[in-house]
Amino acid sequence: MPQNKRESLIYTVMMCFFMVFWMGTYNVILQYGTFNLEVLIASWIGFPIAYVFAMICDWFIVSKLAKGVAFKFLVKPQDSMIKKIICISCCMAIPMVIIMSLYGAVEGAFHTGNWGGIFMGWIINIPRNFIMAVPLQLLIAGPIVRKVFRSLFPEGKVLA
Prior knowledge:
Helix content is 83%, strand content 0%. By secondary structure, it is mainly α. It has one domain (5-152). Helix 3 crosses helix 4. It starts with a helix and ends in an 8-residue tail after the last helix. The model has no long low-confidence stretch (mean pLDDT 95).
């Protein structure tokens, strides 16, 4: 877990990259109904704007909200690190799924011209994204990003 604001920003950049890339690819696969080179190209083209949007939402809105909820209702400072990680990760994933599902619905409306379908697209996207994002966050992205982060930035090396 990051120990200060600078570490937190670096960690967020890494985690957001991982999650936005894979969730974007997942959503393009759902849209196209297959996985091929065209899907990878489409997801990579949509990645930069989605990444910037997700970073802004994560850093300025969701992170503070998630940590506030986690430490007010779910964990205490003396709880184990794994309990803190799981609770904060879940508290981050839920609002990010809601926000990014809306982003995806708006992006879909932009590409198809079906502006009237944004609300239904958003409602359909939330459970689809939730069932992928939470396990991805807890079982794959979290452990990988934490391992890479700590191997690149050992504790005490990034000053506040």
